[in-house]
């Protein structure tokens, strides 16, 4: 559940439904399922195994692999995945701050009175900083408590609640007049899109990033598992439930968007402009809005916890600091970095693009190369520990000659197209 929580993030909520509708409806699911269950699960298996093999995060693992090959620059290269995940944690906390603000507006009933321009005035202003700080404190409190008392306990509680909230809101959305248009938007196949290369590129980006392949977060979670843990089945379960959750969110949002004649392609602003205008027009809109933003908070925090845990583990492996000190240190650094980004939306966008298009995918590539090309031991034996259905040598060949090249392709396409994830 923790891995599913880490994978299920805001990209599932505002990106998947938009891409599903824009790139062919049900047709988009063909390349998406192909990529997520071939490439996504391969990446998860690799990152989980890398963590379990070295009983540590990627920083230690990369250093050891590079040392075994007498390769230079291991310290710098090994820090890239953790730096990338720290960057994601920084801008993600800003977005969670926005969500917390809208949650508070829903509780007080003020959300019915805000104008469509409210979000543009709030984001990028000094008034967003306290909410970003609150988001950091919430995440810090979970990681501060540790793996069992913090991360595991959090996900055991909020993941079932998240599913329940999604189901309630989906049923309500589908019951609205004209909601069938949103269902048609999502599922009506437009077969011509299957021949459009951009459909395949966007499906690749969505599949790669939806399961949180960044060379750090999932590696850390893998390091906390024992040899009885079935990595292969858990990787497929993570990809499956992440996809099902994304589908459920699409049916929660898009039928309501069409029922009220709003723009389905509004991207991130879907949460902060489109959705609030829906609740304004609904009976019991305050209650439904509160439930909606509470569910988004649950999804975001479960991912944010993983984003903080990754760099915290890296600090623990490289220094003599304890967990509590490392957690506070990373959170303080994140706050310092996030303040100028919170008050300048252009800086926020540029920082986000650099992290998601370049640094984070490079971190995933480094771990993939370490697992499939540089590791000197029997990596297949490490993967198959605790596995009920062991993988064969074909998997290593697939990792080397399909997954790694596609990881490099994700980076190249992201740079050329300004992001695909």
Question: What's a quick, concise take on this entry?
Answer:
The chain is an all-alpha fold and 421 residues long. 77% of the residues lie in helices and 0% in strands.
Describe the protein's topology.
Blueprint: H1 2-7, H2 10-22, H3 29-54, H4 58-68, H5 74-108, H6 118-122, H7 129-145, H8 147-174, H9 180-187, H10 197-210, H11 217-223, H12 231-259, H13 269-280, H14 285-318, H15 323-342, H16 345-374, H17 379-384, H18 393-417
Would you kindly provide a written description of the structure presented here, covering whatever features stand out?
With 421 residues, the protein is mostly helical. 77% of the residues lie in helices and 0% in strands. The chain has 18 helices and no strands. The protein has helices at residues 2-7, 10-22, 29-54, 58-68, 74-108, 118-122, 129-145, 147-174, 180-187, 197-210, 217-223, 231-259, 269-280, 285-318, 323-342, 345-374, 379-384, 393-417. Helix 3 runs parallel beside helix 10, helix 3 (29-54) packs across helix 16 (345-374) and helix 5 crosses helix 16. The longest helix has 35 residues, at 74-108.
Key attributes of the depicted protein:
421 residues, mainly alpha
Rg over CA atoms: 21 Å
**DSSP helix fraction:** over 70%
DSSP strand (E) fraction? Answer: under 5%
Measure the end-to-end span. 23 Å
**H/E topology pattern:** HHHHHHHHHHHHHHHHHH
Shape: globular
Major β-sheet, in short? Answer: none
Low-confidence stretches: none
Structural class: mainly alpha
Average residue-wise pLDDT: 89
Strand count: 0
Task: Count the DSSP helices.
Answer: 18
């Amino acid at each position: 559940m923790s891995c599913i929580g880490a994978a299920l993030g805001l990209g599932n909520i505002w990106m998947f439904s938009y891409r599903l509708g824009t790139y062919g409806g049900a047709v988009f699911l063909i390349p998406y399922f192909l990529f997520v269950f071939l490439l996504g699960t391969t990446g998860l298996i690799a990152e989980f195994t890398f963590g379990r093999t070295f009983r540590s995060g990627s920083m230690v693992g990369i250093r050891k692999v590079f040392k075994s090959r007498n390769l230079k620059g291991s310290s710098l290269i090994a820090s890239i995945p953790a730096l990338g995940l720290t960057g994601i944690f920084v801008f993600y906390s800003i977005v969670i701050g926005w969500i917390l603000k809208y949650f508070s507006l829903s509780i007080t009933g003020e959300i019915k009175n805000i104008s469509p321009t409210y979000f543009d005035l709030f984001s990028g202003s000094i008034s967003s900083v306290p909410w970003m700080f609150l988001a950091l404190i919430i995440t810090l409190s979970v990681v501060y408590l540790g793996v069992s008392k913090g991360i595991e306990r959090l996900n055991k509680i909020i993941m079932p609640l998240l599913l329940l909230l999604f189901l309630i809101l989906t049923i309500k959305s589908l019951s609205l007049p004209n909601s069938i248009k949103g269902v048609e938007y999502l599922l009506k196949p437009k077969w011509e899109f299957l021949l459009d290369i951009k459909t395949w590129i966007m499906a690749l980006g969505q599949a790669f990033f939806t399961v949180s392949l960044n060379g750090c977060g999932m590696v850390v979670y893998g390091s906390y598992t024992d040899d009885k843990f079935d990595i292969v089945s858990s990787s497929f379960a993570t990809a499956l439930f992440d996809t099902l959750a994304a589908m459920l969110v699409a049916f929660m949002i898009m039928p309501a968007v069409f029922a009220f004649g709003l723009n389905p392609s509004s991207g991130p602003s879907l949460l902060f402009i489109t959705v609030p205008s829906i609740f304004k027009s609904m009976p019991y809109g305050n209650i439904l809005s509160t439930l909606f933003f509470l569910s988004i908070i649950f999804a975001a925090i479960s991912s944010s916890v993983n984003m903080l845990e990754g760099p915290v583990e890296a600090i623990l492996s490289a220094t003599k600091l304890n967990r509590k000190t490392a957690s506070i240190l990373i959170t303080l650094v994140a706050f310092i970095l996030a303040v100028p980004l919170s008050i300048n939306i252009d800086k926020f966008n540029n920082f986000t693009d650099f992290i998601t298009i370049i640094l984070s995918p490079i971190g995933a590539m480094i771990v993939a190369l370490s697992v499939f090309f540089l590791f000197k031991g029997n990596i297949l034996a490490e993967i198959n520990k605790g596995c009920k259905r062991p993988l064969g040598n074909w998997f290593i060949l697939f990792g080397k000659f399909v997954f790694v090249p596609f990881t490099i392709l994700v980076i190249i396409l992201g740079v050329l197209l300004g992001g695909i994830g």
